[in-house]
Amino acid sequence: MVSLLDIIGPVMVGPSSSHTAGACRLGLLARCLVGGTPEKATIELHGSFARTGEGHGTDKAIVAGLMGFRPDDERIRTALEIMEREGLAYNFEKTTLGDDIHPNTVRISMERGDRHAQMTGASLGAGRVLVSDIDGYPVEVTGSLNTIVLVAEDVKGSIARIAGLLADNNINIATLRLTRKERGGDAFMVIEVDDQPGENVRDAIRSLDWVRWAFRLDKVSA
Amino acid sequence: MYRNLAEAIRDAEARGVPLSTVALELEAKDQGRTVESIRDALRRALVIMREAVARGLVGDLYSSSGLVGGDAAKMVNGPPGPLAGTMFRDVLARALAVQEVNAAMGVIVAAPTAGGAGVLPAVLTGIAASRGIDDERVIDALACAGLIGAVVAERASLSGAEGGCQAETGAAAGMAAGAAVEMLGGTPTQVGHATALAQQGTLGLVCDPLGGLVELPCVFRNATGAAIAMAAIEMAMAGVTFAIPVDEVIDTMGEIGRNMDVRYRETAGGGLAATPTGRRLAKERLYELKRSPG
Fold first, then answer.
1. Global pTM?
2. Which of A145, A182, A217, B95 is 20 to 30 A removed from A192 (C-alpha atoms)?
3. Domain A146-217 class?
Protein backbone atom coordinates (compact mmCIF):
# COMPACT_ATOMS: atom_id res chain seq x y z
CA MET A 1 0.00 0.00 0.00
CA VAL A 2 1.43 3.34 -1.06
CA SER A 3 1.42 6.08 1.55
CA LEU A 4 0.87 9.72 0.66
CA LEU A 5 4.00 10.59 2.64
CA ASP A 6 6.05 8.15 0.53
CA ILE A 7 5.11 10.31 -2.44
CA ILE A 8 5.66 13.73 -0.81
CA GLY A 9 8.93 12.61 0.70
CA PRO A 10 11.29 11.50 1.89
CA VAL A 11 13.25 14.57 2.86
CA MET A 12 16.61 13.44 1.56
CA VAL A 13 20.08 14.23 0.37
CA GLY A 14 20.12 14.14 -3.46
CA PRO A 15 20.49 13.24 -6.19
CA SER A 16 18.26 10.15 -6.61
CA SER A 17 15.36 8.84 -4.54
CA SER A 18 15.89 5.32 -5.84
CA HIS A 19 19.69 5.33 -6.08
CA THR A 20 20.42 7.45 -2.98
CA ALA A 21 17.51 7.51 -0.47
CA GLY A 22 16.24 4.00 -1.29
CA ALA A 23 19.80 2.66 -1.21
CA CYS A 24 20.32 4.27 2.21
CA ARG A 25 17.10 2.66 3.49
CA LEU A 26 18.23 -0.77 2.30
CA GLY A 27 21.47 -0.26 4.24
CA LEU A 28 19.45 0.75 7.32
CA LEU A 29 17.33 -2.41 7.12
CA ALA A 30 20.36 -4.62 6.50
CA ARG A 31 22.21 -3.44 9.60
CA CYS A 32 19.29 -4.54 11.77
CA LEU A 33 19.98 -8.15 10.77
CA VAL A 34 23.32 -8.07 12.55
CA GLY A 35 22.12 -5.83 15.37
CA GLY A 36 24.17 -2.76 14.45
CA THR A 37 26.91 -1.46 12.18
CA PRO A 38 28.55 -4.43 10.43
CA GLU A 39 32.34 -4.69 10.68
CA LYS A 40 32.61 -6.34 7.28
CA ALA A 41 30.31 -6.27 4.30
CA THR A 42 30.26 -7.34 0.68
CA ILE A 43 27.86 -5.19 -1.29
CA GLU A 44 26.83 -6.65 -4.65
CA LEU A 45 25.18 -4.19 -7.02
CA HIS A 46 22.87 -5.41 -9.79
CA GLY A 47 21.44 -3.72 -12.90
CA SER A 48 21.10 0.05 -12.80
CA PHE A 49 22.66 0.09 -9.32
CA ALA A 50 25.80 -1.41 -10.87
CA ARG A 51 25.76 0.72 -14.02
CA THR A 52 24.96 4.19 -12.67
CA GLY A 53 25.42 3.80 -8.92
CA GLU A 54 28.65 5.74 -8.58
CA GLY A 55 27.35 9.01 -10.00
CA HIS A 56 24.22 8.78 -7.85
CA GLY A 57 26.13 8.18 -4.66
CA THR A 58 24.56 4.71 -4.33
CA ASP A 59 27.78 3.40 -2.81
CA LYS A 60 27.91 6.28 -0.31
CA ALA A 61 24.21 5.88 0.52
CA ILE A 62 24.35 2.12 1.20
CA VAL A 63 27.43 2.58 3.37
CA ALA A 64 25.72 5.46 5.18
CA GLY A 65 22.68 3.26 5.81
CA LEU A 66 24.84 0.42 7.13
CA MET A 67 26.41 2.93 9.53
CA GLY A 68 22.94 4.02 10.69
CA PHE A 69 22.64 7.37 8.89
CA ARG A 70 19.17 8.22 7.62
CA PRO A 71 18.40 9.50 4.07
CA ASP A 72 18.32 13.18 5.13
CA ASP A 73 21.71 13.00 6.89
CA GLU A 74 24.21 15.25 5.09
CA ARG A 75 27.03 12.94 6.23
CA ILE A 76 25.98 10.70 3.28
CA ARG A 77 28.19 12.93 1.11
CA THR A 78 31.31 11.84 3.02
CA ALA A 79 30.16 8.34 4.05
CA LEU A 80 33.05 6.56 2.32
CA GLU A 81 35.63 8.64 4.21
CA ILE A 82 33.80 8.04 7.49
CA MET A 83 33.76 4.31 6.73
CA GLU A 84 37.53 4.30 6.24
CA ARG A 85 38.12 6.35 9.37
CA GLU A 86 36.00 3.88 11.38
CA GLY A 87 38.04 0.97 9.98
CA LEU A 88 35.03 -0.74 8.41
CA ALA A 89 35.86 -3.30 5.73
CA TYR A 90 33.15 -2.89 3.08
CA ASN A 91 33.77 -3.81 -0.51
CA PHE A 92 31.65 -3.42 -3.63
CA GLU A 93 31.12 -5.84 -6.47
CA LYS A 94 29.11 -5.48 -9.66
CA THR A 95 27.01 -8.53 -10.43
CA THR A 96 24.04 -9.87 -12.35
CA LEU A 97 21.50 -11.55 -10.09
CA GLY A 98 19.15 -12.64 -12.89
CA ASP A 99 16.99 -11.36 -15.75
CA ASP A 100 13.76 -10.96 -13.79
CA ILE A 101 15.41 -9.15 -10.88
CA HIS A 102 14.46 -5.50 -10.31
CA PRO A 103 17.02 -3.15 -11.93
CA ASN A 104 17.85 -1.44 -8.64
CA THR A 105 18.80 -4.44 -6.54
CA VAL A 106 21.58 -4.95 -4.00
CA ARG A 107 22.69 -8.05 -2.10
CA ILE A 108 24.53 -7.32 1.14
CA SER A 109 26.49 -9.96 3.05
CA MET A 110 27.51 -8.75 6.51
CA GLU A 111 29.44 -9.73 9.60
CA ARG A 112 29.29 -8.20 13.05
CA GLY A 113 30.88 -10.12 15.91
CA ASP A 114 29.70 -13.70 15.49
CA ARG A 115 26.60 -12.69 13.50
CA HIS A 116 26.50 -13.27 9.75
CA ALA A 117 23.56 -12.26 7.58
CA GLN A 118 22.69 -11.75 3.96
CA MET A 119 19.92 -9.57 2.60
CA THR A 120 18.69 -8.88 -0.94
CA GLY A 121 16.53 -5.85 -1.57
CA ALA A 122 15.40 -3.51 -4.32
CA SER A 123 14.75 0.19 -4.50
CA LEU A 124 11.40 0.56 -6.26
CA GLY A 125 11.39 4.31 -6.91
CA ALA A 126 10.37 7.35 -4.86
CA GLY A 127 12.48 5.97 -2.01
CA ARG A 128 10.30 2.89 -1.51
CA VAL A 129 12.15 -0.37 -0.94
CA LEU A 130 11.38 -4.09 -0.86
CA VAL A 131 13.55 -6.69 0.85
CA SER A 132 13.01 -9.97 -1.04
CA ASP A 133 15.39 -12.38 0.64
CA ILE A 134 16.98 -12.78 4.07
CA ASP A 135 19.55 -15.57 4.50
CA GLY A 136 18.03 -17.50 1.60
CA TYR A 137 14.45 -17.23 2.87
CA PRO A 138 12.00 -15.44 0.53
CA VAL A 139 10.44 -12.45 2.32
CA GLU A 140 8.58 -9.23 1.53
CA VAL A 141 9.66 -6.49 3.90
CA THR A 142 8.92 -2.89 2.89
CA GLY A 143 10.26 -1.12 5.96
CA SER A 144 7.07 0.94 6.14
CA LEU A 145 6.20 -0.80 9.43
CA ASN A 146 8.34 -2.08 12.26
CA THR A 147 9.13 -5.69 11.46
CA ILE A 148 10.28 -8.64 13.53
CA VAL A 149 12.13 -11.44 11.73
CA LEU A 150 12.97 -14.71 13.41
CA VAL A 151 14.17 -18.22 12.62
CA ALA A 152 12.75 -20.98 14.79
CA GLU A 153 12.63 -24.73 14.94
CA ASP A 154 9.49 -26.00 13.23
CA VAL A 155 7.51 -26.71 16.43
CA LYS A 156 3.74 -26.86 16.86
CA GLY A 157 2.12 -23.78 18.34
CA SER A 158 5.00 -21.46 17.59
CA ILE A 159 2.80 -18.85 15.91
CA ALA A 160 0.38 -18.86 18.85
CA ARG A 161 3.24 -18.38 21.32
CA ILE A 162 4.72 -15.45 19.39
CA ALA A 163 1.31 -13.86 18.79
CA GLY A 164 0.49 -14.21 22.50
CA LEU A 165 3.79 -12.68 23.50
CA LEU A 166 3.17 -9.68 21.22
CA ALA A 167 -0.40 -9.28 22.49
CA ASP A 168 0.84 -9.34 26.10
CA ASN A 169 3.08 -6.42 25.18
CA ASN A 170 0.19 -4.56 23.55
CA ILE A 171 1.64 -4.90 20.05
CA ASN A 172 -0.77 -5.35 17.16
CA ILE A 173 0.23 -7.61 14.26
CA ALA A 174 -0.34 -6.08 10.82
CA THR A 175 0.96 -8.96 8.69
CA LEU A 176 2.55 -12.32 9.43
CA ARG A 177 4.30 -14.58 6.97
CA LEU A 178 5.73 -18.00 7.75
CA THR A 179 8.03 -19.85 5.35
CA ARG A 180 10.31 -22.86 5.61
CA LYS A 181 12.72 -24.55 3.28
CA GLU A 182 11.48 -28.10 3.99
CA ARG A 183 9.11 -30.04 6.31
CA GLY A 184 10.58 -30.16 9.79
CA GLY A 185 13.22 -27.60 8.75
CA ASP A 186 13.66 -24.21 10.33
CA ALA A 187 10.69 -21.87 10.11
CA PHE A 188 11.24 -18.28 9.12
CA MET A 189 8.74 -15.76 10.42
CA VAL A 190 8.31 -12.15 9.25
CA ILE A 191 5.91 -10.14 11.40
CA GLU A 192 5.00 -6.54 10.56
CA VAL A 193 3.54 -4.71 13.55
CA ASP A 194 1.70 -1.43 14.00
CA ASP A 195 3.51 -0.47 17.19
CA GLN A 196 7.12 -0.03 18.26
CA PRO A 197 8.35 -3.23 19.93
CA GLY A 198 10.95 -2.58 22.60
CA GLU A 199 14.21 -4.43 23.21
CA ASN A 200 12.38 -6.41 25.92
CA VAL A 201 10.01 -7.90 23.32
CA ARG A 202 12.89 -8.94 21.08
CA ASP A 203 14.71 -10.40 24.08
CA ALA A 204 11.58 -12.30 25.20
CA ILE A 205 11.30 -13.83 21.71
CA ARG A 206 15.00 -14.69 21.73
CA SER A 207 14.67 -16.39 25.12
CA LEU A 208 12.25 -18.98 23.74
CA ASP A 209 14.43 -22.08 23.47
CA TRP A 210 13.13 -23.03 19.98
CA VAL A 211 13.95 -19.61 18.53
CA ARG A 212 17.38 -19.60 16.89
CA TRP A 213 17.58 -15.87 16.36
CA ALA A 214 15.32 -12.84 16.17
CA PHE A 215 15.85 -9.29 15.00
CA ARG A 216 13.80 -6.16 14.83
CA LEU A 217 13.89 -4.21 11.57
CA ASP A 218 12.95 -0.66 12.46
CA LYS A 219 10.78 1.07 9.93
CA VAL A 220 12.64 3.28 7.50
CA SER A 221 9.87 5.32 5.85
CA ALA A 222 7.50 7.98 7.12
CA MET B 1 -4.77 5.14 -0.61
CA TYR B 2 -7.00 5.24 -3.69
CA ARG B 3 -5.96 3.10 -6.68
CA ASN B 4 -7.80 5.26 -9.19
CA LEU B 5 -8.46 8.96 -9.38
CA ALA B 6 -11.98 8.51 -10.75
CA GLU B 7 -13.13 7.05 -7.42
CA ALA B 8 -11.43 9.80 -5.39
CA ILE B 9 -12.95 12.47 -7.64
CA ARG B 10 -16.41 10.88 -7.31
CA ASP B 11 -16.13 10.75 -3.50
CA ALA B 12 -14.92 14.35 -3.28
CA GLU B 13 -17.57 15.69 -5.69
CA ALA B 14 -20.34 13.78 -3.85
CA ARG B 15 -19.35 15.39 -0.55
CA GLY B 16 -18.53 18.79 -2.00
CA VAL B 17 -14.99 18.72 -0.60
CA PRO B 18 -11.57 19.05 -2.25
CA LEU B 19 -9.57 15.94 -3.20
CA SER B 20 -7.06 16.71 -0.43
CA THR B 21 -9.81 16.15 2.16
CA VAL B 22 -10.64 12.63 0.99
CA ALA B 23 -6.91 11.86 0.53
CA LEU B 24 -5.96 13.04 4.03
CA GLU B 25 -8.85 11.16 5.64
CA LEU B 26 -7.98 7.90 3.86
CA GLU B 27 -4.27 8.29 4.62
CA ALA B 28 -5.08 8.85 8.32
CA LYS B 29 -7.16 5.67 8.34
CA ASP B 30 -4.54 3.63 6.41
CA GLN B 31 -1.67 4.72 8.62
CA GLY B 32 -3.48 4.88 11.98
CA ARG B 33 -2.53 8.55 12.36
CA THR B 34 -4.40 11.80 12.69
CA VAL B 35 -5.02 14.11 9.74
CA GLU B 36 -3.21 16.83 11.67
CA SER B 37 -0.04 14.71 12.09
CA ILE B 38 0.01 14.05 8.34
CA ARG B 39 -0.48 17.75 7.64
CA ASP B 40 2.43 18.44 10.04
CA ALA B 41 4.66 16.15 7.96
CA LEU B 42 3.55 17.98 4.81
CA ARG B 43 4.20 21.31 6.55
CA ARG B 44 7.79 20.19 7.18
CA ALA B 45 8.06 19.13 3.53
CA LEU B 46 6.94 22.62 2.47
CA VAL B 47 9.61 24.21 4.68
CA ILE B 48 12.34 22.01 3.11
CA MET B 49 10.98 22.77 -0.38
CA ARG B 50 11.19 26.52 0.22
CA GLU B 51 14.71 26.17 1.69
CA ALA B 52 15.81 24.24 -1.40
CA VAL B 53 14.35 26.92 -3.69
CA ALA B 54 16.16 29.67 -1.78
CA ARG B 55 19.42 27.71 -1.61
CA GLY B 56 19.39 26.99 -5.32
CA LEU B 57 18.63 30.58 -6.36
CA VAL B 58 21.90 31.78 -4.75
CA GLY B 59 23.68 30.32 -7.76
CA ASP B 60 26.91 29.06 -6.18
CA LEU B 61 26.13 25.33 -6.24
CA TYR B 62 27.55 22.93 -8.80
CA SER B 63 26.94 19.21 -9.16
CA SER B 64 29.67 16.79 -8.13
CA SER B 65 30.68 16.34 -11.78
CA GLY B 66 30.41 20.07 -12.53
CA LEU B 67 27.99 19.40 -15.41
CA VAL B 68 25.18 21.56 -14.00
CA GLY B 69 24.77 24.58 -11.74
CA GLY B 70 24.27 28.34 -11.80
CA ASP B 71 21.36 28.38 -14.25
CA ALA B 72 18.61 29.11 -11.71
CA ALA B 73 20.41 32.34 -10.81
CA LYS B 74 20.50 33.31 -14.51
CA MET B 75 16.71 33.17 -14.54
CA VAL B 76 16.73 35.78 -11.75
CA ASN B 77 19.58 38.01 -12.89
CA GLY B 78 19.90 37.25 -16.60
CA PRO B 79 18.52 39.29 -19.50
CA PRO B 80 14.74 39.37 -19.98
CA GLY B 81 12.80 37.20 -22.43
CA PRO B 82 9.12 37.32 -23.34
CA LEU B 83 8.21 36.03 -19.85
CA ALA B 84 10.30 38.63 -17.97
CA GLY B 85 8.73 39.67 -14.69
CA THR B 86 6.05 36.96 -14.80
CA MET B 87 5.09 34.19 -12.41
CA PHE B 88 5.96 31.78 -15.22
CA ARG B 89 9.61 32.86 -15.32
CA ASP B 90 9.77 32.64 -11.51
CA VAL B 91 8.39 29.07 -11.61
CA LEU B 92 11.07 28.05 -14.14
CA ALA B 93 13.79 29.58 -11.91
CA ARG B 94 12.46 27.70 -8.87
CA ALA B 95 12.40 24.36 -10.71
CA LEU B 96 16.02 24.80 -11.83
CA ALA B 97 16.99 25.90 -8.29
CA VAL B 98 15.64 22.81 -6.51
CA GLN B 99 17.14 20.45 -9.05
CA GLU B 100 20.54 22.16 -8.86
CA VAL B 101 20.45 21.62 -5.08
CA ASN B 102 19.57 17.98 -5.66
CA ALA B 103 22.41 17.46 -8.15
CA ALA B 104 24.82 18.94 -5.60
CA MET B 105 23.72 16.34 -2.99
CA GLY B 106 21.83 18.98 -1.03
CA VAL B 107 18.64 18.33 0.97
CA ILE B 108 15.38 18.22 -1.00
CA VAL B 109 11.96 16.61 -0.76
CA ALA B 110 11.58 13.72 -3.21
CA ALA B 111 8.16 14.50 -4.71
CA PRO B 112 7.61 12.03 -6.18
CA THR B 113 11.31 11.32 -6.76
CA ALA B 114 14.54 13.25 -6.36
CA GLY B 115 15.04 13.42 -10.13
CA GLY B 116 11.66 15.14 -10.47
CA ALA B 117 11.83 17.08 -7.21
CA GLY B 118 11.89 20.54 -8.77
CA VAL B 119 8.50 20.58 -10.48
CA LEU B 120 6.06 20.43 -7.56
CA PRO B 121 7.75 23.01 -5.27
CA ALA B 122 8.33 25.34 -8.23
CA VAL B 123 4.70 25.31 -9.36
CA LEU B 124 3.07 25.41 -5.91
CA THR B 125 5.37 27.88 -4.14
CA GLY B 126 5.68 30.01 -7.29
CA ILE B 127 1.92 30.37 -7.70
CA ALA B 128 1.38 30.77 -3.93
CA ALA B 129 3.97 33.56 -3.72
CA SER B 130 2.53 35.42 -6.67
CA ARG B 131 -1.12 35.06 -5.56
CA GLY B 132 -0.58 35.42 -1.80
CA ILE B 133 -2.02 31.97 -1.08
CA ASP B 134 -1.64 30.97 2.57
CA ASP B 135 0.43 27.97 3.67
CA GLU B 136 -2.53 25.87 4.85
CA ARG B 137 -3.87 25.78 1.30
CA VAL B 138 -0.42 24.92 -0.07
CA ILE B 139 -0.24 22.04 2.43
CA ASP B 140 -3.63 20.77 1.24
CA ALA B 141 -2.36 21.01 -2.33
CA LEU B 142 0.62 18.85 -1.35
CA ALA B 143 -1.85 16.23 -0.04
CA CYS B 144 -3.69 16.36 -3.37
CA ALA B 145 -0.35 15.91 -5.18
CA GLY B 146 0.41 12.94 -2.93
CA LEU B 147 -2.89 11.31 -3.87
CA ILE B 148 -2.17 11.72 -7.59
CA GLY B 149 1.36 10.35 -7.14
CA ALA B 150 0.11 7.36 -5.14
CA VAL B 151 -2.29 6.45 -7.94
CA VAL B 152 0.54 6.74 -10.48
CA ALA B 153 2.73 4.50 -8.26
CA GLU B 154 -0.03 1.87 -8.12
CA ARG B 155 -1.05 1.94 -11.78
CA ALA B 156 2.20 2.81 -13.55
CA SER B 157 5.56 3.63 -11.99
CA LEU B 158 7.52 6.45 -10.39
CA SER B 159 10.93 5.16 -11.36
CA GLY B 160 12.98 6.31 -14.34
CA ALA B 161 14.66 2.91 -14.38
CA GLU B 162 11.26 1.30 -14.89
CA GLY B 163 9.31 3.88 -16.89
CA GLY B 164 11.61 6.59 -18.19
CA CYS B 165 11.41 10.31 -17.38
CA GLN B 166 7.65 10.29 -18.02
CA ALA B 167 7.47 8.42 -14.67
CA GLU B 168 9.53 11.07 -12.87
CA THR B 169 9.24 14.63 -14.23
CA GLY B 170 6.11 13.53 -16.13
CA ALA B 171 4.42 12.23 -12.99
CA ALA B 172 5.62 15.34 -11.14
CA ALA B 173 4.01 17.55 -13.79
CA GLY B 174 0.72 15.67 -13.44
CA MET B 175 0.86 15.97 -9.66
CA ALA B 176 1.76 19.68 -9.77
CA ALA B 177 -0.94 20.50 -12.31
CA GLY B 178 -3.68 18.76 -10.34
CA ALA B 179 -2.51 20.15 -6.99
CA ALA B 180 -2.29 23.70 -8.29
CA VAL B 181 -5.80 23.53 -9.74
CA GLU B 182 -7.13 22.48 -6.31
CA MET B 183 -5.09 25.29 -4.68
CA LEU B 184 -6.61 27.82 -7.12
CA GLY B 185 -10.15 26.70 -6.30
CA GLY B 186 -10.79 24.31 -9.19
CA THR B 187 -13.16 21.36 -8.72
CA PRO B 188 -11.95 17.77 -8.23
CA THR B 189 -13.06 17.07 -11.81
CA GLN B 190 -10.90 19.94 -13.06
CA VAL B 191 -7.99 18.52 -11.03
CA GLY B 192 -8.39 15.25 -12.95
CA HIS B 193 -8.34 17.03 -16.31
CA ALA B 194 -5.29 19.10 -15.32
CA THR B 195 -3.41 15.93 -14.35
CA ALA B 196 -4.41 14.21 -17.59
CA LEU B 197 -3.43 17.26 -19.66
CA ALA B 198 0.01 17.45 -18.05
CA GLN B 199 0.68 13.72 -18.13
CA GLN B 200 -0.33 13.39 -21.81
CA GLY B 201 2.21 16.06 -22.68
CA THR B 202 5.04 13.99 -21.22
CA LEU B 203 4.07 10.53 -22.55
CA GLY B 204 7.05 8.73 -24.04
CA LEU B 205 9.61 10.98 -22.38
CA VAL B 206 12.81 8.97 -21.98
CA CYS B 207 15.28 8.94 -19.09
CA ASP B 208 18.67 9.56 -20.73
CA PRO B 209 20.97 11.27 -18.25
CA LEU B 210 24.62 11.77 -19.21
CA GLY B 211 26.72 9.15 -17.46
CA GLY B 212 23.60 8.04 -15.59
CA LEU B 213 23.94 11.10 -13.34
CA VAL B 214 20.82 12.97 -12.17
CA GLU B 215 22.17 16.17 -13.70
CA LEU B 216 21.83 16.70 -17.42
CA PRO B 217 19.15 16.90 -18.81
CA CYS B 218 17.36 16.31 -15.45
CA VAL B 219 17.80 19.88 -14.18
CA PHE B 220 16.30 21.29 -17.39
CA ARG B 221 13.58 18.62 -17.62
CA ASN B 222 12.31 19.87 -14.27
CA ALA B 223 11.92 23.36 -15.71
CA THR B 224 10.22 22.12 -18.88
CA GLY B 225 8.10 19.75 -16.75
CA ALA B 226 6.98 22.74 -14.68
CA ALA B 227 6.15 24.58 -17.92
CA ILE B 228 3.96 21.69 -19.08
CA ALA B 229 2.23 21.71 -15.67
CA MET B 230 1.60 25.47 -16.01
CA ALA B 231 0.07 24.93 -19.47
CA ALA B 232 -2.19 22.17 -18.11
CA ILE B 233 -3.27 24.34 -15.15
CA GLU B 234 -4.17 27.25 -17.42
CA MET B 235 -6.18 25.01 -19.75
CA ALA B 236 -8.00 23.12 -16.96
CA MET B 237 -8.91 26.33 -15.11
CA ALA B 238 -10.30 27.71 -18.38
CA GLY B 239 -12.61 24.71 -18.61
CA VAL B 240 -10.61 22.69 -21.14
CA THR B 241 -11.20 18.96 -20.67
CA PHE B 242 -9.24 15.93 -21.87
CA ALA B 243 -11.33 13.17 -23.43
CA ILE B 244 -9.25 10.22 -22.20
CA PRO B 245 -9.94 9.71 -18.45
CA VAL B 246 -6.95 10.51 -16.24
CA ASP B 247 -6.59 6.92 -14.95
CA GLU B 248 -6.34 5.67 -18.52
CA VAL B 249 -3.69 8.29 -19.31
CA ILE B 250 -1.73 7.06 -16.28
CA ASP B 251 -2.14 3.45 -17.44
CA THR B 252 -0.82 4.51 -20.84
CA MET B 253 2.28 5.97 -19.22
CA GLY B 254 2.82 2.64 -17.45
CA GLU B 255 2.35 0.68 -20.66
CA ILE B 256 4.78 2.87 -22.60
CA GLY B 257 7.29 2.57 -19.76
CA ARG B 258 7.11 -1.22 -19.70
CA ASN B 259 7.73 -1.34 -23.45
CA MET B 260 10.47 1.28 -23.43
CA ASP B 261 13.86 -0.02 -24.47
CA VAL B 262 16.25 -0.37 -21.55
CA ARG B 263 18.57 2.20 -23.21
CA TYR B 264 15.97 4.86 -22.38
CA ARG B 265 15.46 3.88 -18.75
CA GLU B 266 18.20 5.57 -16.72
CA THR B 267 20.99 3.38 -18.08
CA ALA B 268 22.76 6.11 -20.07
CA GLY B 269 22.65 3.76 -23.07
CA GLY B 270 20.55 5.94 -25.37
CA GLY B 271 19.10 9.39 -25.99
CA LEU B 272 21.14 12.45 -25.06
CA ALA B 273 23.49 10.28 -22.99
CA ALA B 274 24.52 8.39 -26.14
CA THR B 275 25.22 11.45 -28.31
CA PRO B 276 28.88 12.05 -29.19
CA THR B 277 29.01 15.06 -26.86
CA GLY B 278 27.03 13.28 -24.15
CA ARG B 279 29.46 10.38 -24.13
CA ARG B 280 32.52 12.65 -24.16
CA LEU B 281 31.25 14.86 -21.31
CA ALA B 282 30.26 11.86 -19.19
CA LYS B 283 33.62 10.19 -19.70
CA GLU B 284 35.56 13.32 -18.74
CA ARG B 285 33.39 14.05 -15.72
CA LEU B 286 33.24 10.49 -14.40
CA TYR B 287 37.02 10.28 -14.66
CA GLU B 288 37.30 13.44 -12.59
CA LEU B 289 34.74 12.13 -10.10
CA LYS B 290 36.78 9.00 -9.48
CA ARG B 291 39.92 11.06 -8.91
CA SER B 292 38.32 13.39 -6.37
CA PRO B 293 36.74 11.60 -3.41
CA GLY B 294 33.82 13.23 -1.63
1. 0.87
2. A182
3. alpha beta
